């Protein structure tokens, strides 16, 4: 059974969204199957503008697939994903015969460009400097001039603490530095929200904090984020909402205090015992 305790999150007043504005992220009955394997089962999730949702759960529970559905790297088998009230991947209205019409690849690309994603492996272009990595998409996708893209990229590298590493190649940077370049590269597209899939789990332990600090600063700046992580300290400190997934379902969600400190299901209690 599912426990959703978001309703009794008393009005903490920290979010600035208008009461009548649609949620920034809204998953309604999202289901995903690969053949006979049902990886996501009827997932409902709402993230308001400016909120940070931390997604936790055992390996194979569907966390990455959920993120990939949010930014259309995967297409849900059923249900829908809405971003700022706009259904992803489909026309807003069904055809007269009731079928929903898919958007053109070009319009899907436009929707996807509004969502930044950072993966576990910092997949930078190895033959480009940090600066070139960050400039690449603004120049080639957004059509920025090289001068403007360069200026903005330098500012972003500074923001993630790498102002002095702009001319370094990925092979000359530590894992933590590479991941911070990857974050700057995603931010360069001016995303409306950011998705992070275990951004620190490939890092040596001593490099985790520098990446979490960047995430925390982003959150404090008001970025809407969904973060898959096993870093419970980060979840406690930064998350507005912690979401526990198990076997393709969202089993519990609520504040860090509710989910991490007062879990109700045995599954969640067992999971927390394994990571805390
Ligand atoms: P998590 O991120 O929580 O570890 P995933 O979303 O990566 O979980 O995977 C959930 C389940 O879906 C796993 O059993 C995984 O093997 C399966 N899966 C993910 N992607 C695919 C795919 N493209 N084809 C088939 N099975 C997949
Ligand atoms: Mg995963």
From TrEMBL:
Residues 1-20 are annotated as: Disordered. GO terms for molecular function: ATP binding; ATP hydrolysis activity; ATPase-coupled polar amino acid-transporter activity. It is found in: Cell membrane. It catalyses: a polar amino acid(out) + ATP + H2O = a polar amino acid(in) + ADP + phosphate + H(+). SUPFAM superfamilies: P-loop containing nucleoside triphosphate hydrolases. GO terms for cellular component: plasma membrane. It is a peripheral membrane protein. CDD domains: ABC_HisP_GlnQ. The keyword RNA-binding does not apply. Pfam families: ABC_tran. Residues 25-272 form the ABC transporter domain. Keywords: Amino-acid transport, ATP-binding, Cell membrane, Membrane, Nucleotide-binding, Transport. Its main location: membrane. Its EC number is 7.4.2.1. It is an enzyme of class 7 (translocase). Coiled coil: none annotated. It comes from the Bacteria. InterPro entries: AAA+_ATPase, ABC_ATPase_HisP-typ, ABC_transporter-like_ATP-bd, ABC_transporter-like_CS, MetN_ABC_transporter-like, P-loop_NTPase. Belongs to the ABC transporter superfamily. This is ABC-type polar-amino-acid transporter.
